[in-house]
Write a structure and sequence with these properties.
With 214 residues, the chain is of the alpha+beta class. It has one domain: Spore Coat Polysaccharide Biosynthesis Protein SpsA, Chain A (Alpha-Beta Complex), CATH 3.90.550. Helices cover 34% and strands 21% of the residues. Strands 5, 6, 9, 10 and 11 form a 5-stranded mixed β-sheet that branches. Strand 7 and strand 8 form a beta hairpin. It is globular and about 50 Å long. The model has no long low-confidence stretch (mean pLDDT 92).
C-alpha cells in the first residue's frame, strides 16, 4: 500500500475504505451513534472527504486520537461521558467487511458479559519464536484464536478500566487486555473470515473482490 496515503483513506472500488466501514456500521439497527477517532491532522480531511460527500448517518462526533491506540480509544470514550451509553463497541476503521451477524453476536453477549471479542481459530501451525529466530515451542492451535473487532464492552467498566490502566503507565494494544488487567473475564465469540484488517496490498485486492461479490 502507498505509504503516502493512510490505508483507511485508500479506495476500494470508488469509496475510501473508512467510508465503506462507516456506511456499514451506520446501517446496523442497534448502533445509535458513532464516535470516530482519527489523527489530529486528519480531522478536516475526514469531515470533508470521508463523511460529508457520502452523507454518512449516525456520526455524533469526530475526535482527535492520541499517540497510541490506547490513548485514542480513551479519547473516544471520553467523548461519550455525557451520554453515558450502557454499551460501547470498538471497531477498526480498516475492517470494512465485518458481517452483521458478528456485530449482533457481540451485542447479544453483552447482556451476560462485561467484555466480548470476536475471534477465529488459527488454521496454521503456530510457533513461539525467540528474539534470535529460534523456535521455543509449538503452540496448541486449538487454544489460540486470532482476535478481531468489533470488541464490545459495558461502557462504565471499560472507561474505569482505562482510567486505572493510565495510572499504571502501561501501554497495551488491545482493549480487551485493559479489561483483563482490571480483573474482568473476556468472552470470545465466533468471528468471520471476511472480517479482515487491511494491512497489505493483497488485503486491498481481496477487499475489492469482496466489494464486487457481496
Amino acid at each position: 500500500m502507498a505509504a503516502a496515503c493512510p490505508k483507511q483513506f485508500l479506495k476500494i472500488g470508488f469509496l475510501p475504505v473508512l467510508t465503506v466501514t462507516l456506511k456499514s456500521i451506520s446501517r446496523i439497527p442497534f448502533i445509535s451513534g458513532i464516535v470516530l477517532v482519527v489523527s489530529e491532522d486528519s480531522l478536516k480531511y475526514v469531515q470533508e472527504n470521508i463523511i460529508a460527500p457520502y452523507r454518512i448517518k449516525k456520526i455524533e462526533s469526530v475526535v482527535a486520537g492520541g499517540a497510541t491506540r490506547q490513548e485514542s480509544v480513551f479519547n473516544g470514550l471520553t467523548a461519550l461521558i455525557e451520554r453515558m451509553p450502557h454499551y460501547v463497541m470498538i471497531h477498526d476503521g480498516v475492517r470494512p467487511f465485518c458481517p452483521n451477524e458478528v456485530w449482533q453476536t457481540v451485542y447479544n453477549s453483552l447482556g451476560q458479559f462485561q467484555a466480548v471479542i470476536p475471534a477465529i481459530r488459527s488454521g496454521d501451525t503456530l510457533k513461539e519464536v525467540s528474539e534470535k529466530g529460534i523456535v521455543v515451542q509449538t503452540l496448541d492451535r486449538d487454544k489460540v484464536w486470532s482476535v478481531q473487532t468489533p470488541q464490545g464492552f459495558q461502557f462504565n467498566e471499560l472507561y474505569n478500566a482505562h482510567v486505572k490502566m493510565r495510572k499504571t503507565g502501561k501501554i497495551i494494544t488491545d482493549d480487551s487486555m485493559v479489561m483483563e488487567h482490571a480483573g474482568y473475564s473476556v468472552k470470545v465469540v465466533q468471528g468471520h473470515k471476511d472480517n479482515i484488517k487491511l494491512t497489505t496490498p493483497e488485503d486491498l485486492r481481496y477487499a475489492e473482490y469482496l466489494l464486487n461479490h457481496t
